[in-house]
Amino acid sequence: MSPSINRQWRLAQRPVGDVKPGDLVLQESPKPVPGKGQILVRNLYLSLDPTNRIWMSDMDQYMPPVEIGDVMRGGTLGVVEHSNADGFAPGDIVILPYCRYVVDPVQLEIREGHITRIDGGLDAKLMRDWLEDGRQNERDRDPFAVSHLGWGMNPQAPWYWMALHGDDPERNRAAARVFPGNFLFSTGPNTQGGGKRSTRGHYDVPMRDCTVELDGRTIIDRGRFTDPRLVVAREQR
């Protein structure tokens, strides 16, 4: 690929059902020149999240939908190639947002579907302050609402990946959600499940070694599936 060409996937029309040819269009244009206070970043990694399908719709959601003709969004890891902004220099790495292992216990009190208390050390404070910052006003409880729950089944996603390869969010956040037997606890928006609650952000916590029961039946026992039909064989790569 030519380094002088900028490539963008733009939304051509809102999909009906599955995404089909014609819903997106690949547009090529000359590499832009940064203006005053701007930087030019060459993307090395691009996150392709399932929520892209939600962003392509015009339903109420936790952030504005992608408009027709706009570039599809996604988190990236990139290198600064040219800078006209203070504080950035060519070769700098740009990473958004953060990801980390929980290193001390966090205790949550949940009442009527909302977190009412967060106790613990540093990780509890990080969670509490992040959710507080998402409130629209003092009476806004939506950032503290329980959003969705689930478990991971992908055998190619070891939970220790971040410990081996570093905490780049775009290389970790998908694997952290789907490693086998984890129980995912999430706060904030529920629009992806058909709800109407939209928030400025959310908090995903994939947890290890949990026991999960559904309708009185144990699905996961201390981080391991009890039904062999839920176990997917790992491919050696």
Question: How is this structure best described in words?
Answer:
The protein has helices at residues 52-55, 122-133, 161-165, 169-178, and strands at residues 5-11, 24-30, 39-46, 76-83, 93-95, 106-111, 114-120, 146-151, 183-187, 203-207, 212-214, 217-221, 224-225. The chain contains four helices and 13 strands. The chain is globular. Strands 3-4-5 form a three-stranded antiparallel beta sheet. It has a three-stranded antiparallel beta sheet with strand order 8-9-10, sandwiched between helices. Strands 11-12-13 form a three-stranded antiparallel beta sheet, with no helix packed on it. It is of the alpha+beta class and 237 residues long. 13% of the residues lie in helices and 30% in strands. It starts with a strand and ends in a 12-residue tail after the last strand. It folds into two domains: 5-95, Medium-chain alcohol dehydrogenases, catalytic domain (Quinone Oxidoreductase, Chain A, domain 1, Alpha-Beta Complex), CATH 3.90.180.10; 106-230, no CATH class. Strand 6 and strand 7 (114-120) form a beta hairpin.
